[in-house]
């Protein structure tokens, strides 16, 4: 199989994994899902563009607050609430159990608890309010940065921690996979390009606040994972994506104003 065929299959596999876009199985048949995870930040650009299109189309008709609500809902539907599910499971597990094994068992349970519900309400509210407060002219680069950068930051976790579950099936494509240099290059190229694009669009003031915010968010999530379960799971990757996405939006509001 050629190198070009490999990356096309990986890209199709990544698209099918983190969105609800109907991808024919033949497009990604044989793709290594561990390797395909390097394209998650690239798919994040598509997700950010999808969110912005809803905001751009509906804001003139309904006003920015209602458009922001519908843009966030449309994005959740587009991604199948994959990362929101991880955030809810992390909060239920980390703060709903005392022992490591109990925390992991709660995170694996399909039912949602009070911690998870509150986390989802908080995440949804913060996302909507932040997008509502963004200047419309800055919404496109900010949403691209939020969705691409958050997936790149989450993609660093398997490089820095070991997988927490020792047995049973895993839905985490990065589990126990070596993260090579070319993987990180592919993963981080889109958000770096988005930072350059943002600077060219007059948003250069965002660069260092975002870099610092991403680093602090990653450090905080790694600390929580090590403290509670001594590693990472797919749920913690999804939760990391959500936290970094929201942090990106809040930093953009703080720096750019409304």
Give the topology, please.
Layout: H1 3-18, H2 25-28, H3 33-36, H4 40-62, H5 64-79, H6 82-96, H7 100-108, H8 114-133, H9 136-154, H10 157-160, H11 181-203, H12 207-228, H13 234-256
Helix pairs in contact: 4-5, 4-9, 4-11, 5-8, 6-7, 6-8, 6-13, 8-13, 9-11, 9-13, 12-13
GO cellular component, one term: plasma membrane
Main location: membrane
Function: Joins adenosylcobinamide-GDP and alpha-ribazole to generate adenosylcobalamin (Ado-cobalamin). Also synthesizes adenosylcobalamin 5'-phosphate from adenosylcobinamide-GDP and alpha-ribazole 5'-phosphate.
Question: What do these coordinates show?
Answer:
By secondary structure, the protein is mainly alpha-helical. It has one domain (3-13, 35-162, 173-256). The chain contains 13 helices and no strands. It has helices at residues 3-18, 25-28, 33-36, 40-62, 64-79, 82-96, 100-108, 114-133, 136-154, 157-160, 181-203, 207-228, 234-256. Helix 4 packs antiparallel against helix 5 (64-79), helix 4 (40-62) runs antiparallel to helix 9 (136-154) and helix 4 (40-62) runs parallel beside helix 11. It is globular, with a radius of gyration of 18 Å. The protein starts with a helix and ends with a helix. It catalyses: alpha-ribazole + adenosylcob(III)inamide-GDP = adenosylcob(III)alamin + GMP + H(+); alpha-ribazole 5'-phosphate + adenosylcob(III)inamide-GDP = adenosylcob(III)alamin 5'-phosphate + GMP + H(+). GO terms for molecular function: adenosylcobinamide-GDP ribazoletransferase activity; cobalamin 5'-phosphate synthase activity. Its cofactor is Mg(2+).
